[in-house]
Amino acid sequence: MEAKNTWAPVTPVILAGGLGTRLRSAVADRPKVLAEIHGQPFLSFLLDQLLSAGIGHALLCTGYLAEQVQAVFGASYKDLRLSYSREPALLGTGGALRLALPSIKSEWLLVMNGDSYCDVSLAEFWSWHAGRAAPATLLLTRVPDTGRFGRVHVDLNGRILSFDEKSREPGPGLINAGIYFLRRAVVEALPPGSTISLERNVFPSLIGNGLYGFCTSAPFLDIGIPEALAQAEAFLEHRVQSKH
Question: Could you give the CA distance from residue 110 to residue 180 in angstroms, rounded to a whole number?
Answer without folding.
Answer: 6
